[in-house]
Amino acid sequence: MRGKTIYGKGKVQGNAVVIKTPISFLGDVDGLRGVIKVNDGEKPIAGRILILPYSRGSTVGPYIMYQLVKYGNAPLAILTINADTLMLIGSVMAGIPLVTNLPDSILNINDGAVIIIDLDKGEINVE
C-alpha cells in the first residue's frame, strides 16, 4: 500500500494494532498506560504500529500523543486513512511517524501482523 508520509524518515517495523473505529485521543487513549479503549476492552499501542481510520475530537489530542512518548508508551508509527490537523500536529510535536491517505483496506490488516513502513516512500508492506 502507498500513502503520504507526514512525519518521519527511514524504515519502521513492528506488529499492528488495528482500531476499526475513529478515536479521540482525549478520552479513548490512556497516555500513562499506552492503551486505547475499545468496545470490548482495551488494546495496547505501546511499541506497535497503530492503524486507525481517523481521529476525532479535542485540541488536547496532541498533548495526549506527547504524553504517550513521555511515559514510553507511544506507538512506533501511526497509519491512517485520513489524518486531521490535530493528529498532524500531535505527530510532529510528539515525534511519532505518521502516514496518511491510505486505502480503506488498511483496516483489514490483522492485529499482530508484521508491518514494514518505508517512510521515505510512503510504502506499507504486510508480512
Verbal overview:
This protein has 127 residues and is an alpha/beta fold. It has one domain: 3-Layer(bba) Sandwich (Glucose Oxidase, domain 1), CATH 3.50.30.10. The chain contains three helices and ten strands; from the N terminus they run E-E-H-E-E-E-E-H-E-H-E-E-E. A seven-stranded mixed beta sheet has the order 1-8-7-6-2-9-10. Strand 7, helix 3 and strand 8 form a beta-alpha-beta unit. Helix 2 packs parallel to helix 3. It is globular and about 30 Å long. The model has no long low-confidence stretch (mean pLDDT 95).
At a glance:
The chain is α/β, with parallel strands linked by helices. It has helices at 25-28, 61-70, 85-94; strands at 4-7, 11-18, 29-30, 35-38, 41-44, 49-52, 77-80, 98-100, 114-118, 123-126. The protein contains three helices and ten strands.
User: Which outline best applies?
Assistant: globular
Strand order of the largest sheet: 1-8-7-6-2-9-10
Output the helix-strand order: EEHEEEEHEHEEE
Indicate the CATH architecture. 3-Layer(bba) Sandwich
Describe the secondary-structure layout.
Elements: E1 4-7, E2 11-18, H1 25-28, E3 29-30, E4 35-38, E5 41-44, E6 49-52, H2 61-70, E7 77-80, H3 85-94, E8 98-100, E9 114-118, E10 123-126
Parallel strand pairs: 2-6, 6-7, 7-8
Antiparallel strand pairs: 1-8, 2-9, 3-4, 4-5, 9-10
Helix pairs in contact: 2-3
Attribute tags:
3-stranded antiparallel sheet; 127 residues; alpha/beta; Glucose Oxidase, domain 1; 3 helices
